[in-house]
């Protein structure tokens, strides 16, 4: 069968890691008897400078025709960050109601990290993706005056918490059976106490899954000290964002961490993207690590019903990572994005 994928390369290293990934996905799908048919969309910083918007007004309708979207990254030093982040990626997550952001992190043989050798990490962050601290509620009052205020209101709805929580418990069942809810319900008395309550209710439906509630500051320490014990981390929007960069580094770096934006309860396109941003400090040098994007592509193949192709991508990435001469700069090597990608295609 043919899988239609909308591709948004975006800015900075986005186009570099996306173009390294597409041949891998094509080869893996082909091996599984399928084809990947891509339509490229030129949304992002360039589009913003040309039209005043990061994506066209009918962007959501365009995407609705596809089962899946592969997204690189947005962000340019010459455009205010919030314009592009809200104008594209957060905008799409909210407009398509992509309620759950899934971010797996694992260690890879051959990739050295800051963790002690035998420890390693194998966990999934499940992040509520549409509200919480990123709900977009608030404003700037009395601009320029000494009384100026920036108000940012966090919104936590029972419905959104339940969706993310259910997803986390189902996922934990297919893994090591443990959910760690991450909150700050000691200092924040309304939103995160609701998370604790909803999680306790949902947990009753999954007696085979162990769960705990951990304060985010304690979780930051635990991630560094004993990551091996963690299985599924269930987070609100802000804490999930922060902890996923920390976890990504423990798994080998920002260049290694994939993600999926999903809506489990409806038929909308799912969006797959590396956790990292546009990395302007290395953009254009041809040295970006494409693993995060390739693994996001593997999640995409799983999502569209090609699990064998997804496994082929992961196996080929693992194979290439075992060879230090193929490591890109962020893993301490000298290989270019292209060289690494060619090795992965060959391994597929
Ligand atoms: P970043 O993730 O782009 O970069 C952080 C560090 O990780 C940099 O040193 C960068 O070189 C490195 N890095 C990131 N991806 C890499 C890769 N594939 N290979 C090797 N090294 C890599 O985060 P930063 O610097 O905070 O943000 C840069 C821009 O990206 C900003 O405009 C920001 O708003 C945007 N951004 C966009 C996101 C998205 O599109 N989903 C997510 C995060 C940031
Ligand atoms: Mg982030």
UniProtKB/TrEMBL annotation:
Reported cofactor(s): Mg(2+); Mn(2+)
Keyword DNA damage attributed: no
Isopropylmalate dehydrogenase-like domain span: 4-344
Matches recorded under InterPro entries: ICDH/IPMDH, IsoCit/isopropylmalate_DH_CS, IsoPropMal-DH-like_dom
Organism superkingdom: Bacteria
Alphabetically ordered keywords of this record: Manganese, Metal-binding, NAD, Oxidoreductase
Name of the molecule in the record: Isocitrate/isopropylmalate dehydrogenase family protein
Organism of derivation: Micromonospora echinofusca
């Amino acid at each position: 069968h043919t899988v239609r994928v909308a591709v948004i390369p975006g800015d900075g290293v986005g186009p570099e890691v996306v173009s390294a990934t597409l041949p891998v996905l094509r080869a893996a799908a082909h091996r599984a008897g399928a084809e990947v048919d891509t339509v490229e969309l030129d949304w992002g910083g360039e589009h913003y400078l040309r039209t005043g918007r990061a994506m066209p007004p009918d962007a959501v309708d365009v995407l609705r025709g596809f089962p899946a979207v592969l997204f690189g990254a947005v962000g340019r030093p010459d455009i205010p960050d919030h314009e592009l982040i809200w104008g594209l990626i957060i905008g799409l997550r909210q407009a398509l109601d992509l309620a759950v952001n899934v971010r797996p992190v694992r260690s890879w043989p051959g990739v050295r990290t800051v963790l002690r050798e035998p420890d390693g990490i194998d966990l999934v962050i499940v992040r509520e993706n549409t509200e919480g601290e990123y709900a977009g509620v608030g404003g700037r009052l009395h601009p320029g005056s000494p009384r100026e205020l920036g108000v940012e209101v966090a919104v936590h709805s029972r419905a959104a918490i339940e969706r993310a929580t259910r997803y986390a418990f189902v996922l934990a069942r297919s893994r090591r059976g443990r959910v760690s809810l991450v909150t700050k319900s000691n200092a924040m008395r309304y939103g995160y106490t609701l998370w604790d309550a909803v999680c306790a209710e949902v947990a009753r439906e999954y007696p085979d899954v162990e769960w705990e509630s951990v304060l985010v500051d304690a979780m930051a320490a635990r991630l560094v000290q004993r990551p091996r014990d963690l299985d599924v981390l269930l987070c609100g929007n802000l804490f999930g964002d922060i902890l996923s960069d920390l976890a990504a580094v423990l798994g080998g770096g920002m260049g290694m961490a994939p993600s999926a934006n999903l809506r489990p309860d409806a038929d909308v396109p799912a969006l797959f993207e590396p956790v990292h941003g546009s990395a302007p400090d290395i953009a254009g040098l041809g040295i970006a690590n494409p693993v995060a994007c390739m693994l996001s592509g593997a999640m995409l193949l799983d999502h569209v019903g090609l699990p064998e192709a997804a496994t082929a991508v992961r196996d080929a990435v693992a194979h290439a990572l075992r060879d230090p001469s193929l490591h890109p700069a962020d893993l301490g090597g000298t290989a270019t994005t292209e060289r690494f990608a060619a090795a992965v295609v060959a391994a597929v």
